[in-house]
Write a structure and sequence with these properties.
Elements lengths: L9 H20 L7 E9 L5 E6 L4 E4 L15 E3 L1 E5 L3 E8 L3 E5 L4 E4 L4 E10 L8
Parallel strand pairs: 1-9
Antiparallel strand pairs: 1-5, 2-3, 2-6, 3-4, 6-8, 7-9
Length: 137
């Protein structure tokens, strides 16, 4: 090792520069950790009819019971079953909406497909009563 004119050892300075350059290179080529799974939610709108939305591949199996707002002071029941699931990013999920007897699908997947992306993913369906008033649509 030789001492540089400013008093710094040349070999030490070269080693520090090499270490910094190596660290910068490693940081720039290190793969970024990608999100491998994402959440998917199925929403059943309050059309007052009943039915089930399912997914293929399996994961979503969400049922909404029919509800008559004029027959009771009770609020509409929450959907039951698996209304949220986790899927691999890039997976194509196909939804099917099946109305209960006395209801029909007013709008939504019949069937409908989507590719799961990072972040928030959602689908929805509205079931309405066959012989009655639908809340929207």
């Amino acid at each position: 090792m030789r001492k540089h004119s400013n008093g710094v050892w040349r070999a030490r300075a070269a080693g520090v520069v090499t270490a910094l350059a190596t660290a910068a290179t490693m940081a720039s080529v290190a793969p970024v950790q990608a999100q491998s799974t994402a959440q998917l939610s199925a929403w059943v709108s309050d059309g007052w009819g009943g039915g089930t939305i399912t997914s293929r591949p399996a994961g979503i199996n969400c049922h909404q019971s029919a509800w008559d707002p004029y027959a009771s002071n009770e609020p509409q029941p929450y959907p039951t079953g698996a209304c949220t699931a986790t899927f691999e990013v890039g997976t194509t999920v196909t939804f099917t909406a099946t109305p209960d007897s006395g209801s029909y699908v007013n709008d939504g997947p019949t069937p409908h497909s989507m590719t799961i992306r990072t972040g928030y993913n959602a689908t929805w369906v509205m079931f309405c009563p066959s012989g009655g008033l639908c809340s929207a649509g």
